[in-house]
Specification:
Helix content: 40-55%
Distance between the termini: 49 Å
Number of helices: 18
Number of strands: 14
Largest sheet: 8 strands, mixed
Shape: globular
Structural class: alpha+beta
Length: about 550
Amino acid sequence: MSATVSDPIRGTSEPDRYWTSTNLGEACPDVMSPMCWSIWGESAEWSWLYSMYAFGVIPKKAVVVSPDVNDRGLSCFYGRQAFNVDAIKETMASLPGVSPDDFERDLMGSVRPDAKKVESSNRRLPIVLAKAPGTAMRTGKRIRKLHDRMYAKWLKVVYEPDLAAQDRPAIERLLEARQDFVDVFSVHCVVRFLFQGGQSGLAAAAEKAGDAALAADLLAGVGGVLETTMTDELWRLGHHEISEDEFLRKWGYHGPNEGNPYTTSWREDPTPIRYLAAASAARERPNDRAARAQDAAKEAERRLLAGTPALQRPAIRWLLRRMQNTIRTLQIGKAGYLMALDEARAAVKAFGAEKVQLGQFDEPDDAFFLTVEECQQLAAGELPNAREIVRARRATRIEYKNMEMPLSFVGMPTLTPKSDWSSADILEVTGSASGGGIVEGRARIVVEADDDIDLDPGDILVCRFTDPGWAPLMALADALVIDIGTSASHGAVVARELGIPFVIGTGNGTRVLREGDRILVDGGAGVVKVLERATDREATSA
């Protein structure tokens, strides 16, 4: 990159800072553009701090985005978001009953032997006890209200923009969209925290009942989950029960890599849903699969209660109902902030179109290679070298996309060319989250969200990540193997609701497994095994 052009997505770190992109990779899965990071960066930092304040873990004065990235909870490296593990542990130390090391163990699978010791503190306990119950009770209503407001605005400003929306300067619409994202995402972070606490409670209850494996089954078959509704309506679209416009009016803000504003949503290009609708129409209706998953969840609940002392059963029933509602609410929050991102997407492209007309850009997408603040400068006539900035940053992003970054690293990460990937000798991978039964089938590898792929009955989808826009494709698979994610991930939620065995958080499944391999997915054990390499089978048949 030119010495005169800054690189907002490269990142910076002190030598001893420990970072991980685990759990963040699916939120913004593609390499971010400068605009993507400009929308996500400080917004996400403020939002997670707000969630800690909402529960009383930190005081209001601590909800401030530090000017020093080394003190923040998250940052960006080569276009990928990453958690600052030590910084988050220091904040989590003020959460009563939670060990900072437990947080690292849950996130990473283990605690570094040389990790800096962070002592827990109960000094915020009275405040947490005072604030947390009210936050838990109010959050569901708040996120639903935000979702409904965001949906009404998305229809009016993005899907079918009225004259008033079209006449407003695009830069104003962009600033407003970023604030909408903050408004929804901050409350979504509160819901995400509630999910984590409820999941831990159910896991402890299952273990006390003598069957720890029940924990995954208890999170399944919730019913009323938005993404399952979307897959069913796609099936209905394939059967011509609803029109394409009716489907897009409800779900058009989804699309490949939808967490990145620098992409194309279904409302802009509905081609993917036409294939998915046709493929779904030839399969079992998603609602019927969901009904079986709900029956299995009821059986898991029965077994849990049977192994629980009678006096404790009312509390367990309450926790189960609360957790089911939290899972539904989690998906509502995701939908809300994805609509805000689609609002931002539309505003950026409108800004770019304005600048093309003025001769300041070559194409509307050039706007994605500036930050929000730089777009403000350009609108004010204070950014004379916009074309130079765009050219340099386009080239840099292509360079980053051709490189792989480790999931965890200390200091600045070392990038590896994707052409150097090799895991030929590994025949088994494990995941951090899993569920369902045991399935054998053909591995179908999808590295990029917009890759063309036809899933046949018996195929197993193997991918780097999932987001809500993947739900229809996941519904066509007999099992899921996903590199990045947790039990709260989109893939896990959809798999549990549709009764699809899954192993998530493998880290390297897309590198170990090959297209066409015969594999076994054991959702109960969280293991994926290669039964027969595609190359071996081809050699035998030859």
